[in-house]
Specification:
190 residues, mainly alpha, Topoisomerase I, Chain A, domain 4, two-stranded antiparallel ribbon, two-stranded antiparallel sheet, 7 helices, elongated
């Protein structure tokens, strides 16, 4: 076996190094799924602020002319903020995807604050709108409860459960129904 000369050994090592340097570098692979929509909460907050700006009422115009009601007041175009609308504006395909994104600790606060702003809008609608049914429905679906407090004004002692109703006379049932419907007990019989 022939011995390599030092000159040949250096050439051989240099060619191996050149081959090694031209090989493709290993890159980190995506763990799966699509790439993140936002790198930072601040980046997401810019889009959230943009969404709320778009949701502000705008004066309704036709061909540059302000539209007015019969009293001369300007008409407004309302586009109230919604969770679904915000999710779409942020680039998510649905609300669930946005809520999944909120599970990332760095985005939790940002998304919760935005949803709370929408909740505030619904609360204000209840207090200022003559027909707040939609806002009430929205709040109930987001954890709010409506509790009715009323004073029981029936003549009956103790509590009555559904099972106990079968033991009551027709007269007693009529009195209960009347008291419940009128929410008063005037002491008169039918």
């Amino acid at each position: 076996m022939k011995k390599e000369t030092p000159k040949k050994a250096v050439k051989k090592a240099a060619s191996k190094k050149a081959i090694k340097n031209t090989a493709p570098k290993k890159t980190k692979k995506n763990k799966g799924g699509r790439p993140a929509l936002y790198k930072t909460p601040q980046e997401m907050q810019v889009k959230i602020d943009e969404y709320f700006k778009l949701s502000e009422p705008k004066i309704l115009r036709v061909e540059g002319e302000v539209m007015r009601d019969k009293n001369g007041n300007p008409l407004f175009e309302y586009n109230p903020p919604t969770v679904s609308g915000m999710a779409l504006h942020l680039g998510f395909c649905d609300r669930a995807s946005m809520y999944d994104y909120a599970k990332k600790p760095e985005f939790t606060h940002t998304i919760k604050m935005a949803v709370t702003r929408i909740e505030q809008y619904a609360e204000n609608a209840i207090l200022t709108n003559s027909k707040p049914v939609g806002a009430i429905f929205w709040l109930k679906n987001h954890g709010w409860r409506a509790e009715e407090q009323r004073e029981d004004k029936t003549k009956f002692e103790g509590s009555v459960t559904v099972n106990d109703l079968s033991k009551l006379s027709d007269k007693q049932l009529k009195e209960m129904a009347k008291a419940a419907a009128l929410d008063i007990d005037d002491g008169t019989e039918e």
